[in-house]
Amino acid sequence: MRDLGVGDAEALVALYEHLNPGDPPPSPAAVRAVFAHPGLRHFGRFAEGRLIASCNLAVIPNLTRGGRSYGVIENVVTEAAHRGRGHGQAVIQHALGQAWASGCYKVVLTTSRKDPAVWAFYERCGFASGDKRAFVIRAPAT
Fold first, then answer.
1. N-acetyltransferase domain location, by residue (predicted)?
2. I want to staple 53 with a disulfide (CB 3.0 to 4.6 A). Which of 39, 87, 94, 102 is the partner?
């Protein structure tokens, strides 16, 4: 397990095909901007030198809770052939450890998946589904 950098972007974008098939790839400028963003880290798990699982953690500064930050985990993905072997849980646990080490008082994770097995996976990772309610709004089509 390690932090991913701009040099891992091609492998990460390829892995994201298992998350959002057919998503257009980011521009080189977008890749550089994402990896330069303070407070945003990407973590990856490798098998035989190939990236097989990843997630990212954003640490958000905060003025509540005594000024303690909170974390947001997104883009959790494991290559289809490697699912069910603990790789996704390992990247999430690593991200959580990094969040706690950064002084976060909580970590939030959302999913658009409707599969109860996916929800159960996140609960096995320690997340509580009934603690908060998430609302999403997407940018209007242009």
1. 1-142
2. 87
